[in-house]
Amino acid sequence: LKETGELVAVKVQRPFVLETVTIDLFIIRNLGLVLRRFPQVSIDVVGLVDEWAARFFEELDYVNEGENGNRFAEMMKKDLPQVVVPKTYQKYTSRKVLTTQWIDGEKLSQSTEDDVGSLVSVGVICYLKQLLDTGFFHADPHPGNMIRTPDGKLAILDFGLVTKLTDDQKYGMIEAIAHLIHRDYDAIVKDFVKLGFIPEGVNLDPILPVLAKVFDQALEGGGAKNINFQELAADLAQITFDYPFRIPPYFALIIRAIGVLEGIALVGDPEFAIVDEAYPYIAQRLLTDESPRLRSALRYTIYGKTGVFDAERFIDVMQAFENFIRAAKSGGGENLKGSMAELAEIGTLPSTSLVPAFPMAISQPEQPVKARAALSFLLSERGDFFREFILDEIVKAIDAVSREQLIQIAASFGLGNATPVFSMVPVRARALLPTITEEDRVILNNVEKVVKFLTAGNNPTTIDGDVNVVYLVQELLPVLPSISSKILPEVMSRLSSRVFARLIREAFL
Known about the structure:
The chain is of the alpha+beta class. Helix content is 54%, strand content 7%. The chain has helices at residues 17-35, 45-59, 62-76, 116-134, 167-181, 185-195, 207-219, 229-239, 249-268, 274-288, 292-303, 311-329, 373-379, 384-412, 429-432, 438-454, 469-476, 480-486, 488-508; strands spanning 8-12, 83-84, 97-101, 106-107, 136-138, 146-148, 154-156, 162-164, 348-349, 367-368, 462-463, 466-467. The protein has a 4-stranded mixed beta sheet, covered by helices on one side. Strands 1-3 form a two-stranded antiparallel sheet. α2 packs across α9 (249-268) and α14 crosses α19. Mean pLDDT is 78; it is low at 348-370, 417-433 and 458-467.
């Protein structure tokens, strides 16, 4: 630029491109109108052309492309500062000429740097954020549009082709994934209606077994996280020939973009699986999004159709969340203080913080709290909903542990089969020495799994089958003040109510 000396990239549109594209689209659309007369043609060519045409005309307006780039950069700078977008110089941009900041770098698909794998992970998070959060989707992620900068950041170029998704589409895709994890095919078919794959009012009974077969095949060998997205998309496309099942135009753009992104990643990692890489982001969305639909999806993911807490599923979601945190910190995200990289930080303990529940606490300088990412998140403000979500399980577990210890203590004194002292009072013996039910055993098993996970599981958390309380306290010591202020009062309140209600029920009912 003459006025500042800044190096810029100038993109100039070829002559008569707009006219040529218009004629081509007009001809293809008319062919599509002819094909509509033949019911055996399952693809809605007209709908597809209309979707593409709108994007093409937007892509040929460079003022719109520049605005898209600026909007995209604004959406990413807080959450993913390691993703950069060239600044658009609007003063030197018109419908047919685009002037942007020049960015040095090399194609991500051709780079041999050690951090390419991390940048691919950042790219996956970036595209999933667009697809499932902002709804503003860069639909042209070909290798020339993804650049590794010399300082190890990911630059994304060319915002001519974008598509926009509604909240229903974004939430619908996440809900469908939650249902897929539990193989709830009845729910998935209904999700497909909401997402536009199946027309409203169509009889779903014939489609259900076909979709169930497709997903059963896709889920073989590792579950939802190991699904081959391209093969699944191809299998779903085959259904369109025999059933009233259509790939919506907006989703055709998504399939193309994800396929290209997967191709870039496979160059550096032959084992790359897009669904496996996507799961950590989806776990993060489920844990942090405050919308009622996603909170319902989170509950369903952990409890399933039966409504019973599943410790394995809980651990699976939290492990995926930790994988997300690691990916969000890569590519400079941690140093740049990206908000996604800091999701699992509790904060700091003030130097004047002496917690009444822990009188042995010693005043010390303000310092960051260190704990496993999953535990840190559960104790952070962002984890409020999920903490509330599992509080009843915690209370049940404490109640079960305390009753088991009471029985063990009684047995050591030979009171296991003793006649109650107050034999004249109409109170059952089990009210004094309450039994441990099969449900309690399941709860204790669940809490043992969760405790092992939250405390990293490197050391034994049990001694002869009992929870090793000393080790657990040592592991949780750095965050005990947070636990006391956030969880302990609520746990004690619920526990006392539960114990009192059980004693009344077992003694008099």
